[in-house]
Amino acid sequence: MSENQEFKREMLAALPSLRAFAMSLIGRHDRADDLVQDTIMKAWAKQDHFEMGTNMKAWLFTILRNELYSQMRKRGREIQDSDGHFTETLAHHPEQYGSLDLQDFRRALDQLPPDQREAIILVGASGFSYEEAATICGCALGTIKSRVNRARQRLQEILQIKGENDYGPDETSAPITSRAFVS
Amino acid sequence: MRPKSDDPNAQIAAKLKALYLSVQEEGIPARFLDLLEKLEAVEQRSVLDGKE
Lengths: 183, 52
Known about the structure:
The complex is a heterodimer of chains A (183) and B (52).
Chain A: H1 3-26, H2 29-45, H3 56-75, H4 77-80, H5 82-92, H6 100-110, H7 114-124, H8 130-137, H9 141-164, H10 169-182
Helix pairs in contact in A: 1-2, 1-3, 2-3, 3-8, 6-9, 7-8, 7-9, 8-9
Chain B: H1 8-24, H2 30-51
């Protein structure tokens, strides 16, 4: 097999997880897939920089993450406006998550600061070690650890608070509806 | 060391994984397979051109 085919094969193997990462970060299929597409093109163009035998998944995740933040900087507050993003996610894509439970979790995840969200996803779902996550995010090991801890605490707070209101559908939909009308 | 299932951290970890896996298990959409085919075709053409 040529090095080229090998590269493509390894990339394909990492794609389902790369998509899941993008989707967990962004919360919308269309935007997440656009980001994955941009990542594939970037990675393909940079394939000479990739050393076969090293961690393709971590390499792709790093490219995706850098691409996301550079796009966010370009678009200014469009994506960073988490309130608008939250409303939009709920308004157009509530069916993407099978159970109500996962929809609640998705909403909680959306409320985290981006640095905490990516840290807990990388370590808690993508299967990276703290060291690998620190390399992907370009920060110190201790920083990743504290981000993951803060993310866990925050998610616990959000989900417990929501839990008390679980029995009344109006209590969950009312603030969302009013928020949608305000914006 | 396995956390107990009523441990809030374990619950969060399980939900996060479930959310992640719900996307991961969708597999690879056709648009990405097509994109890779195209990228490969372009590259093969340029390799052939280069050998002339």
